[in-house]
Amino acid sequence: MRRFTAFNLTTLTLGMAFLYLPILILILYSFNASRIVTVWGGFSTRWYVQLMQNESILDAAWVTLRVGLLSATIATVLGTLAAIALVRSGRFFGRTLFSGMVYAPLVMPEVITGLSLLLLFVAINFDRGFWTVTIAHITFAMCFVAVVVQSRLMSFDRSLEEAALDLGATPAKTFFAVTLPLIFPAVAAGWMLAFSLSLDDLVIASFTTGPGATTLPMKIYSQVRRGVTPEINAVCTILVAFVATGVLAASVIGKVRAPAKAP
């Protein structure tokens, strides 16, 4: 058994502080009464009240939420189908090309992905806006879902499907009654990953957006360039709380759905 030495404790503490101390400072200063973000003026929630009255930020948040929900759902469906094709279809003509196209966004720089999608939309004369951002997010989020679901399918016990087929179930019924419930935690994890990536994206959305489709990261970035305001701290704190709640909820659901270990 390895000893937990002072060096390990120091390294872990410094690493956790490097990751989470800036977030804690941001959350703390979102309750700062002073308009100057670097000067503490007392505890106050005035910036959250003003944030709820800032229509431009609320509109950007609503666009981001709609894009995230829609793109994550479609990317989950397409990514799951791609994972099933790669795991269950064996060797087929064009498998290597198909696999490369599915996984390409994983290693492709976001600038190149965004620029290529921009050129595509311009070439087909497709007006940029809400739907172009959604399509772009589906494109790069689908591969992450495929990786997550494929890892679960690789360890899937296919004898359960064979038993259902032997009992007279159709392939479609077997998938929805046996396969999908068993791989659902991986599908849900892929959806959450796709949703988080959509909420966080700035580069690709900047290339593919249009009038009336400003996302929240773009709005925050544009305002930060003119100077950090307490409202920005407040909206970032809400985003952190939203993501943290989703992660905790997924963890709790995963533990509840996990089969109890035999004594």
Mean pLDDT: 84
Distance between the termini: 24 Å
Tally the helices: 11
Helix/sheet category: mainly alpha
What name is given to the CATH topology of the largest domain? MetI-like fold
The largest pleated sheet is described as: none
Task: Please indicate the count of domains.
Answer: 2
CATH class of the largest domain: Mainly Alpha
Which range does the strand content fall in?
under 5%
Q: How large is the radius of gyration?
A: 23 Å
Report the order of strands and helices. Answer: HHHHHHHHHHH
Give the tally of β-strands: 0
CATH architecture of the largest domain: Orthogonal Bundle
User: Quick one: CATH superfamily of the largest domain?
Assistant: MetI-like
Envelope shape: globular
Relative helix content = over 70%
Detailed description of the structure:
Helix content is 75%, strand content 0%. It has 2 domains: 24-53 and 228-257, no CATH class; 64-226, MetI-like fold, CATH 1.10.3720.10. It is mostly helical and 263 residues long. The longest helix has 34 residues, at 55-88. The two termini are 24 Å apart.
Quick overview:
With 263 residues, this protein is mainly α.
List the helices and strands and how they pair.
Blueprint: H1 6-29, H2 46-51, H3 55-88, H4 95-107, H5 110-123, H6 130-154, H7 159-166, H8 171-200, H9 203-208, H10 216-224, H11 230-257
Give keywords.
mainly alpha; MetI-like fold; 11 helices; 75% helix; globular
